[in-house]
Amino acid sequence: MKKIQKEIQVRNPQGLHARPAALFVQIVSKYDVNVTVEKNGDRVNGKSIMGILTLGAQQNSLVGIEIEGDAADQVMQELEALLTQEET
Amino acid sequence: MNLTDFISRDAVTINLKSQGKEDVIAELVELLVETSAIDRKHKKKIVEILMAREALGSTAIGQGIAIPHGKYEGAKQLIGCLGISKKGVDFDSLDGEPAHIFFLLIAPADSAGPHLKALARISRLLKDKFIRESLKSAKDEKEMMAIIEQEDARLSAA
What we know:
The structure holds two protein chains of two kinds.
Chain A: E1 3-9, H1 18-30, E2 34-39, E3 42-45, H2 49-54, E4 62-68, H3 72-83
Antiparallel strand pairs in A: 1-4, 2-3, 2-4
Helix pairs in contact in A: 1-3
Chain B: H1 3-6, E1 7-13, H2 21-34, H3 43-55, E2 60-62, E3 65-66, E4 69-72, E5 79-89, E6 99-108, H4 113-126, H5 129-136, H6 141-157
Parallel strand pairs in B: 1-5, 3-6, 4-6
Antiparallel strand pairs in B: 2-3, 5-6
Helix pairs in contact in B: 2-3
Protein backbone atom coordinates (compact mmCIF):
# COMPACT_ATOMS: atom_id res chain seq x y z
CA MET A 1 0.00 0.00 0.00
CA LYS A 2 1.31 3.38 -0.98
CA LYS A 3 2.01 5.79 1.87
CA ILE A 4 3.09 9.41 1.56
CA GLN A 5 3.43 12.33 3.90
CA LYS A 6 3.90 16.04 3.61
CA GLU A 7 3.90 19.17 5.74
CA ILE A 8 1.52 21.80 4.47
CA GLN A 9 1.14 25.39 5.61
CA VAL A 10 -2.45 26.50 6.10
CA ARG A 11 -3.00 29.63 4.02
CA ASN A 12 -6.66 30.25 4.72
CA PRO A 13 -6.94 33.49 6.75
CA GLN A 14 -9.56 31.88 8.99
CA GLY A 15 -7.41 28.81 9.55
CA LEU A 16 -8.71 25.29 9.31
CA HIS A 17 -12.20 26.21 10.51
CA ALA A 18 -15.48 24.37 10.11
CA ARG A 19 -15.99 24.77 6.37
CA PRO A 20 -12.51 23.79 5.18
CA ALA A 21 -12.59 20.94 7.70
CA ALA A 22 -15.84 19.70 6.14
CA LEU A 23 -14.38 20.06 2.64
CA PHE A 24 -11.27 18.22 3.79
CA VAL A 25 -13.34 15.26 4.97
CA GLN A 26 -15.37 15.32 1.76
CA ILE A 27 -12.20 15.00 -0.32
CA VAL A 28 -10.79 12.19 1.82
CA SER A 29 -14.09 10.32 1.81
CA LYS A 30 -14.20 10.21 -2.00
CA TYR A 31 -11.25 7.83 -2.03
CA ASP A 32 -10.28 4.56 -0.47
CA VAL A 33 -7.49 6.01 1.65
CA ASN A 34 -6.53 6.47 5.28
CA VAL A 35 -5.51 9.99 6.18
CA THR A 36 -3.93 11.20 9.39
CA VAL A 37 -3.54 14.88 10.18
CA GLU A 38 -0.94 15.96 12.69
CA LYS A 39 -0.22 19.24 14.42
CA ASN A 40 2.04 19.78 17.42
CA GLY A 41 2.05 16.07 18.17
CA ASP A 42 -1.73 15.69 18.05
CA ARG A 43 -2.79 13.14 15.46
CA VAL A 44 -6.35 12.90 14.21
CA ASN A 45 -8.29 10.94 11.63
CA GLY A 46 -8.70 12.86 8.36
CA LYS A 47 -12.25 11.56 8.04
CA SER A 48 -13.41 13.29 11.20
CA ILE A 49 -14.43 16.96 11.01
CA MET A 50 -14.42 17.08 14.76
CA GLY A 51 -10.96 15.60 14.92
CA ILE A 52 -9.62 18.18 12.47
CA LEU A 53 -11.29 21.02 14.36
CA THR A 54 -9.63 19.94 17.60
CA LEU A 55 -6.27 20.85 16.03
CA GLY A 56 -7.29 24.52 15.88
CA ALA A 57 -4.91 25.06 12.96
CA GLN A 58 -4.58 28.79 12.38
CA GLN A 59 -3.37 30.60 9.29
CA ASN A 60 0.31 29.90 8.58
CA SER A 61 0.42 26.93 10.92
CA LEU A 62 1.99 23.73 9.65
CA VAL A 63 0.04 20.51 9.54
CA GLY A 64 1.45 17.12 8.67
CA ILE A 65 -0.65 15.03 6.33
CA GLU A 66 -0.10 11.32 6.01
CA ILE A 67 -2.01 9.37 3.37
CA GLU A 68 -2.14 5.66 2.87
CA GLY A 69 -3.79 4.16 -0.20
CA ASP A 70 -3.47 3.79 -3.94
CA ALA A 71 -4.92 7.25 -4.59
CA ALA A 72 -2.54 8.91 -2.11
CA ASP A 73 -0.95 11.30 -4.64
CA GLN A 74 -4.28 12.47 -5.99
CA VAL A 75 -5.68 13.03 -2.49
CA MET A 76 -2.54 14.91 -1.38
CA GLN A 77 -2.85 17.19 -4.39
CA GLU A 78 -6.48 17.99 -3.62
CA LEU A 79 -5.86 18.52 0.09
CA GLU A 80 -2.90 20.77 -0.59
CA ALA A 81 -5.01 22.84 -2.97
CA LEU A 82 -7.67 23.18 -0.28
CA LEU A 83 -5.28 24.16 2.51
CA THR A 84 -3.35 26.64 0.45
CA GLN A 85 -6.40 28.46 -0.87
CA GLU A 86 -6.40 32.03 0.36
CA GLU A 87 -10.18 32.14 0.49
CA THR A 88 -12.69 29.56 1.57
CA MET B 1 -9.74 29.05 26.47
CA ASN B 2 -12.52 27.61 28.60
CA LEU B 3 -16.00 26.77 27.40
CA THR B 4 -17.43 28.89 30.18
CA ASP B 5 -15.51 31.88 28.77
CA PHE B 6 -18.03 32.12 25.98
CA ILE B 7 -21.03 30.16 27.17
CA SER B 8 -22.83 32.09 29.83
CA ARG B 9 -24.48 30.15 32.60
CA ASP B 10 -28.06 30.82 31.65
CA ALA B 11 -27.65 30.48 27.90
CA VAL B 12 -28.18 26.74 27.93
CA THR B 13 -31.26 24.62 27.47
CA ILE B 14 -31.95 20.91 27.55
CA ASN B 15 -35.22 21.37 25.79
CA LEU B 16 -35.02 22.83 22.30
CA LYS B 17 -38.50 22.55 20.85
CA SER B 18 -38.02 23.60 17.23
CA GLN B 19 -37.99 21.13 14.39
CA GLY B 20 -36.71 23.13 11.41
CA LYS B 21 -33.22 24.49 10.83
CA GLU B 22 -34.12 28.18 10.89
CA ASP B 23 -36.49 27.71 13.82
CA VAL B 24 -33.90 26.00 15.97
CA ILE B 25 -31.34 28.70 15.16
CA ALA B 26 -33.88 31.38 16.10
CA GLU B 27 -34.63 29.51 19.33
CA LEU B 28 -30.94 29.44 20.24
CA VAL B 29 -30.50 33.13 19.42
CA GLU B 30 -33.55 33.88 21.55
CA LEU B 31 -31.71 32.24 24.43
CA LEU B 32 -28.95 34.82 23.98
CA VAL B 33 -31.52 37.61 23.86
CA GLU B 34 -33.15 36.41 27.07
CA THR B 35 -29.83 36.31 28.88
CA SER B 36 -29.02 39.82 27.59
CA ALA B 37 -25.98 38.53 25.71
CA ILE B 38 -27.37 40.23 22.62
CA ASP B 39 -29.92 42.96 22.06
CA ARG B 40 -33.32 41.89 20.76
CA LYS B 41 -33.10 44.34 17.88
CA HIS B 42 -30.14 42.39 16.48
CA LYS B 43 -31.85 39.01 16.63
CA LYS B 44 -33.29 38.97 13.11
CA LYS B 45 -30.00 40.04 11.54
CA ILE B 46 -28.03 37.44 13.49
CA VAL B 47 -30.41 34.66 12.46
CA GLU B 48 -29.94 35.79 8.85
CA ILE B 49 -26.15 35.69 9.19
CA LEU B 50 -26.25 32.20 10.70
CA MET B 51 -28.61 30.94 8.00
CA ALA B 52 -26.38 32.45 5.29
CA ARG B 53 -23.50 30.45 6.77
CA GLU B 54 -25.61 27.28 6.72
CA ALA B 55 -26.34 27.90 3.05
CA LEU B 56 -22.59 27.58 2.33
CA GLY B 57 -22.57 24.13 3.89
CA SER B 58 -24.21 22.67 6.95
CA THR B 59 -22.46 23.18 10.28
CA ALA B 60 -23.81 19.82 11.42
CA ILE B 61 -20.50 18.01 11.63
CA GLY B 62 -21.87 14.55 12.34
CA GLN B 63 -22.43 12.44 15.44
CA GLY B 64 -25.49 14.49 16.34
CA ILE B 65 -23.62 17.78 16.68
CA ALA B 66 -24.19 21.13 15.00
CA ILE B 67 -22.13 24.29 15.48
CA PRO B 68 -24.05 27.11 13.81
CA HIS B 69 -21.71 30.09 13.79
CA GLY B 70 -21.12 33.43 12.18
CA LYS B 71 -19.59 36.83 12.53
CA TYR B 72 -21.52 39.85 13.61
CA GLU B 73 -20.12 43.35 13.73
CA GLY B 74 -22.27 44.18 16.75
CA ALA B 75 -20.61 41.45 18.82
CA LYS B 76 -17.90 42.78 21.13
CA GLN B 77 -16.65 39.36 22.11
CA LEU B 78 -17.25 35.73 21.31
CA ILE B 79 -20.68 34.71 22.59
CA GLY B 80 -22.22 31.30 22.57
CA CYS B 81 -25.01 29.15 23.84
CA LEU B 82 -25.70 25.46 24.10
CA GLY B 83 -28.94 23.66 23.44
CA ILE B 84 -30.04 20.05 23.41
CA SER B 85 -32.85 18.70 21.31
CA LYS B 86 -34.02 15.37 22.70
CA LYS B 87 -35.94 14.61 19.55
CA GLY B 88 -33.24 15.74 17.13
CA VAL B 89 -33.41 18.20 14.25
CA ASP B 90 -32.82 17.51 10.58
CA PHE B 91 -29.85 19.81 9.97
CA ASP B 92 -28.51 18.40 6.68
CA SER B 93 -25.77 16.71 8.61
CA LEU B 94 -22.92 15.16 6.65
CA ASP B 95 -23.64 11.74 8.11
CA GLY B 96 -27.39 12.14 7.57
CA GLU B 97 -28.19 11.81 11.27
CA PRO B 98 -30.37 14.33 13.12
CA ALA B 99 -28.57 16.91 15.27
CA HIS B 100 -29.13 16.80 19.03
CA ILE B 101 -26.36 18.98 20.44
CA PHE B 102 -26.17 22.61 19.30
CA PHE B 103 -23.32 24.94 20.10
CA LEU B 104 -24.10 28.33 18.62
CA LEU B 105 -21.27 30.85 18.28
CA ILE B 106 -21.27 34.50 17.32
CA ALA B 107 -17.89 36.12 16.85
CA PRO B 108 -16.89 39.77 16.41
CA ALA B 109 -16.48 40.72 12.75
CA ASP B 110 -12.73 41.33 12.85
CA SER B 111 -11.65 38.16 14.60
CA ALA B 112 -10.49 34.77 13.41
CA GLY B 113 -8.37 33.36 16.26
CA PRO B 114 -10.87 33.13 19.15
CA HIS B 115 -13.46 31.62 16.87
CA LEU B 116 -11.10 28.86 15.75
CA LYS B 117 -10.00 28.24 19.33
CA ALA B 118 -13.61 27.92 20.42
CA LEU B 119 -14.33 25.45 17.62
CA ALA B 120 -11.29 23.44 18.67
CA ARG B 121 -12.36 23.54 22.30
CA ILE B 122 -15.91 22.42 21.52
CA SER B 123 -14.68 19.65 19.24
CA ARG B 124 -12.31 18.36 21.89
CA LEU B 125 -15.21 18.20 24.32
CA LEU B 126 -17.62 16.48 21.96
CA LYS B 127 -15.18 13.97 20.52
CA ASP B 128 -15.82 12.03 23.69
CA LYS B 129 -18.86 9.81 23.23
CA PHE B 130 -19.45 9.68 26.96
CA ILE B 131 -19.70 13.47 27.09
CA ARG B 132 -22.10 13.56 24.15
CA GLU B 133 -24.34 11.01 25.81
CA SER B 134 -24.12 12.77 29.17
CA LEU B 135 -25.13 16.09 27.65
CA LYS B 136 -28.01 14.51 25.75
CA SER B 137 -29.33 12.75 28.80
CA ALA B 138 -28.78 15.59 31.30
CA LYS B 139 -31.91 16.07 33.35
CA ASP B 140 -31.64 19.81 33.68
CA GLU B 141 -29.53 22.82 32.73
CA LYS B 142 -27.65 22.69 36.00
CA GLU B 143 -26.43 19.19 35.19
CA MET B 144 -25.41 20.32 31.69
CA MET B 145 -23.35 23.18 33.08
CA ALA B 146 -21.78 20.83 35.63
CA ILE B 147 -20.57 18.61 32.79
CA ILE B 148 -19.15 21.61 30.93
CA GLU B 149 -17.42 22.97 34.03
CA GLN B 150 -15.95 19.58 34.88
CA GLU B 151 -14.53 19.29 31.40
CA ASP B 152 -13.11 22.80 31.55
CA ALA B 153 -11.34 21.83 34.76
CA ARG B 154 -10.11 18.53 33.30
CA LEU B 155 -8.76 20.03 30.07
CA SER B 156 -7.12 22.98 31.79
CA ALA B 157 -5.36 20.59 34.11
CA ALA B 158 -4.16 18.38 31.24
